[in-house]
Amino acid sequence: xxxxxxxxxxxxxxxxxxxxxxxxxxxxxxxxxxxxxxxxxxxxxxxxxxxxxxxxxxxxxxxxxxxxxxxxxxxxxxxxxxxxxxxxxxxxxxxxxxxxxxxxxxxxxxxxxxxxxxxxxxxxxxxxxxxxxxxxxxxxxxxxxxxxxxxxxxxxxxxxxxxxxxxxxxxxxxxxxxxxxxxxxxxxxxxxxxxxxxxxxxxxxxxxxxxxxxxxxxxxxxxxxxxxxxxxxxxxxxxxxxxxxxxxxxxxxxxxxxxxxxxxxxxxxxxxxxxxxxxxxxxxxxxxxxxxxxxxxxxxxxxxxxxxxxxxxxxxxxxxxxxxxxxxxxxxxxxxxxxxxxxxxxxxxxxxxxxxxxxxxxxxxxxxxxxxxxxxxxxxxxxxxxxxxxxxxxxxxxxxxxxxxxx
Length: 407
Known about the structure:
Blueprint lengths: L2 H19 L4 H8 L3 H26 L4 H21 L3 H29 L5 H30 L1 H22 L13 H7 L7 H8 L2 H22 L1 H9 L5 H49 L3 H29 L7 H25 L6 H23 L6 H7 L1
């Protein structure tokens, strides 16, 4: 695996920390900037919306740029947004920096996924995807708890400074390790890809969008959004579930969040080793297992042992399946070499934004703190149904190998 792929994972780690760390900083931000807790919470919503909108827009904006230049511009803008955010005394300016940071993060994600796949050998592209996605899981394990700890002892601004500082080594490493080549229709930076690019132009934006709006691709993106919605619906309300239903003390919450992150890291690591050979099987089995796992958690949430075990297992299944689905989008949308990553990023973040909102509605309706887990079950049922419809209504075309086998 090229060193540059791990560099991209490091940058995604810093950005993932920024995306999720505000959950432990809202009280400090509200008190310092003299706003309400809900207003401070809007900073997280602004980031999520910026990710959803920014992924396709930034990918379109930068699709003709050399990959190294695009990555450096997006990561520099991300660092600058956090420096301004750490310095400002204004809530409005901080809100603006969250939107700018999200747009930069979305653009970086879209380019990084394409670049990682292009730099990897064809047989290792699923593993390359898992390394990039793994940056988010490491953020859940290390970055988010560390950000909360910094916020508690040194103030919320220290967490913003830390994200900016952690991003600097990635900036230097991108300069020295990522090839400064333009995206090609062949989708690779190998000598063979460079030779192919002499005769194959990068598809136009209209051609790429046409590839991404095919029925099978859209249904796959919808399935991904539903799976991520189920994951973040339950994950967002893990604290009240653990303390008010399971009966664990508040001191267990950071450990449970870290355990979920460890499971996620294990999941993307295993997925990267399996997905290139058995991607479709992995996705179907992972989705079915996730659905059963959420049912088991909803039914056994009163048991500390069951809850602790299932938090690890569901983290592993959720991110292992999610990274395989991102690889699947690239496979299905091969005619969109520069925009496929942005659509996958947008689908991921639509689920991340919608899941917690739906779970919150059930709690507000008085359905109790198990209800978000049941919402996750419902979302997984919809995801499995959508996947079944996709396979039945939009079968993959036969490859030459398949024809030989059939004959």
